[in-house]
Amino acid sequence: MNFTAPESLIFWTSIIFIVFLILLRKFAWKPILGAVNERETSIKNALLSAENARKEMQNLQSDNQRILQEARLERDAMLKDAREMKEKMVADAKNEAQAQGLKMIEQAKAAIEGEKNAALAELKSHVATLSLEIAEKLLKEELSNKESQVKLVEKMLGDAKLN
Question: Distance between CA atoms of 103 and 110, rounded to whole angstroms?
Fold first, then answer.
């Protein structure tokens, strides 16, 4: 093989290139492809993880919505119960106040009636006392002389009928 300079350069360059390719394939190509494959796998895993996280977030959001709805319903029920309890307490207090008012009115009427009866009894007693005093004075005056006494006795005997 007798090569000239440009041919020998091509030959040696080709040999060096082939050796370089074999060395690259043996030492660099596999690790580079392994790293690329590993990177591709990690990206796929990251995408799957992100998709799972998105689905989990949707589930959490739906759970949160459900919990919020339940909390609202419970709050509404509690408010309704509180309103009903308040209305019942107000109605009970009103009824009790009305009953107390009626009771007080009845007691006042009874007290007024008692006072009225006491006043009437006192008035009757006073009138009776006055009447007796007046009658006593009249009788004293009429019976002060003997002639008046005889006339009164005769009048009473005349008024009294014998059976």
Answer: 10
Contact 84, 91 (CB under 8 A): no
3-state SS, one letter per residue, for the chain: CCCCHHHHHHHHHHHHHHHHHHHHHHHHHHHHHHHHHHHHHHHHHHHHHHHHHHHHHHHHHHHHHHHHHHHHHHHHHHHHHHHHHHHHHHHHHHHHHHHHHHHHHHHHHHHHHHHHHHHHHHHHHHHHHHHHHHHHHHHHHHCCCHHHHHHHHHHHHHHCCCC
In this prediction the pTM is 0.41
Under a CB-based contact definition with an 8 Å cutoff, are residues 143 and 152 in contact? Answer: yes
Whether the per-residue pLDDT at 162 is higher than 80: the answer is: no
Length of the chain: 163
Q: pLDDT tens digits for 50-99?
A: 999 999 999 999 999 999 999 999 999 999 999 999 999 999 999 999 99
Token duo for residue 31: 């690790």
Tell me, what DSSP letter sits at residue 144?
Answer: T
3-state class of 160 per DSSP? coil
Q: Are 142 and 152 in contact (CB under 8 A)?
A: yes
